[in-house]
Design goal:
Elements: E1 25-30, H1 36-44, E2 48-52, E3 59-67, E4 70-76, H2 88-99, E5 103-110, H3 114-127, E6 130-136, H4 138-143, E7 146-148, H5 150-157, E8 161-163, H6 172-178, E9 183-184, H7 193-202, H8 214-222, H9 229-232, H10 238-252, H11 259-278, E10 279-281, H12 286-297, H13 304-351, H14 356-362, H15 382-411, H16 414-426, H17 435-441, H18 445-451, H19 458-471, H20 475-485, H21 490-514, H22 534-568, H23 571-585, H24 592-599, H25 604-621, H26 626-641, H27 646-656, H28 658-686
Helix pairs in contact: 3-11, 5-11, 7-8, 7-10, 13-15, 15-22, 17-18, 18-27, 19-21, 19-27, 19-28, 20-25, 20-26, 21-26, 22-27, 23-24, 24-25, 25-26, 26-28, 27-28
Length: 687
Amino acid sequence: MTPPAGAAARADPLERKRTVSAARTLVLVGNPNVGKSVLFGALTGTYVTVSNYPGTTVEVTRGSATIAGEGWHVLDTPGTNNLLPMSEDEQVTRDILLKEEGYVVLQVCDAKNLRRGLLLAAQLAEAEVPFALALNMADEAAGRGIRIDNEALSGELGVDVVPTVAVQRTGLPVLVERLPHARASRFRPRYDDAVEAAIAEVEPLLPAHPRLARRALALMVLAGDDSLRPWLAPQVSPSDLERMEEVRRRLAARYPESLRFVVARQRLASADALHDRVVTRGAANAGSSFARRLGAWSTAPLAGIPILLLVLFVAYEFVGVLGAKVAVDFLENTVFYDHVVPWTEGLIRFLVPAGPVQSFLVGPPGQSFRQTSGFLAGRYGLISMGLSYGMAIVLPIVATFFVAFSVLEDSGYLPRLAVMVNRIFKSMGLNGKAVLPMVLGLGCDTMATMTARIMETRKERVIVTLLLALGVPCSAQLAVIFAMLAGVSPRAALWFGGAILLVLFLVGWLASRVIPGRGSDFVLELPPLRVPQMGNVAVKTLARIEWYLREALPLFILGTLLLWVLDAVRGISLLERAAAPVVVGLLDLPPSAATAFILGFLRRDYAAAGLFQHFEPFMKAGTMTRDMNIQVTVALVTVTLFIPCIANFFMILKERGWRTGLAIGAFIMPFSVAVGAAVNVLMRQFY
């Protein structure tokens, strides 16, 4: 990021100890789930940009704010527990502090868990970066009987300490007033003599850094931070690198534990001592005690299940019924098909003279747009299909899902959901965090593929992406699937559910053993349960809808354009004829099912809807035979596992790269047909 005018880089390390009033960049740093993003939103408003940090898939958010009458750049970093990175998120935060120029740090800390915040503050103090400390959720800490002596803590650290309640904007004016005067902390964790001697030996070998003190860099080197090597290598001679490695090996030989653990333990001891000097505990209020009990029940093996079922029921009614049925039906039929598409067609016919150009845009006059090949209004028209799909079908679903997701997120329940299902996901080579993109996939797989970034390792992100593309139906497809399952026998419905769950577990288990790389430990902070702030929910929802319109909607338009081109060159009919022998021969389905599978590549629910139209007369008449029950089950299993919609496929290519995306597509297509054929054989034998 280019520093703003007037923000000079500081070559002299002693400059770090001075008040930094000329800085015009504010970097927010903090542990996960401390309200950092809420403070960022309060400082910057809605004019923000979200983008990947260079060379990573980790998102950082940038905005601008007026602080003390001057314009500042504001950067929200990923949540981190340590500046000695153990995940890509933590490395991005460390790299921002390493590479940004002329910044001031605002550390956001959970006042209820000051010990954890002080461990991060100790590292910022060692780095000698100018910072201020916001003790967020001060009201919840007081409710638990936690009393923090802010003045004593400020005196010990040598930086401004401001209690805040971000969701209520409490403390924000004082914080804004203090930020221009942020300064480096005088607090220094002390280590044993061997570590201090090693630090003194390594420091002179390190290059001068305009922002981070050599002491902090020396500790990173001694702890074995390999991610620092690309920055060090061009600035340090090979002989000095070898000398630093020799010091590290000599120090490591003194301890039975890893140096990373030794440094963290001794640093934590200093943070604990500081914590005990400034924190006292009193009696918690009744409301806080009830919230803690409810939080404990939500992760208990027995009490947590009814709470989980209640949450899922309410979420389904809101997203699956209100969003996927009521809102979609109104927007798709009443708004688009009754008004937008006819108005578009009428406007084109009024403005463009009759002839080849008019026919190209909206098809021949006197025909329904569903029967023409018009570019704007036609079977695969950019407005009649692409825009109506993105705006009338997917948008209301993802909007209601975003609202529900933001409520669950703001209430603190989502991490508890991850704890509840952690053991289940471990059998698939994942951990409980994977439940978040999986649940999101029930709204829209395209969006959920992007949220797979929350998984800490590339291996886990690839597995989650594969499972989303393979066996997690989006809400639009799920509605049609449920409608079809209502018309078959309960035994057939159990065959369908059992086959999908078995495939997900089997593929996840195999992928965890085949895909190279490592998994991650399941370490998740459980924030307290709280009443969601509707303003915060609204801001998060609007930001996510903006992302959808910017990132996902163009993919729907592009997918429609490709289908229009295929239709124009008769490629779709060729694909249907090529797929018919497989659909009829292996799956024992009617030839018309081939068309449904091809259209399913544009919209997953198109495939299910095409099958529904074929079997609906028999379901309504109650004439479902044994063979028809088997056919419906086989068709639903195959279409659920079939290649994802084109928008999701493009998102996979964007997130995971061309090689991984094409490999996932090449695996899913034959695999789904093979599973469908196997279910067909087994059901005809044992149904």
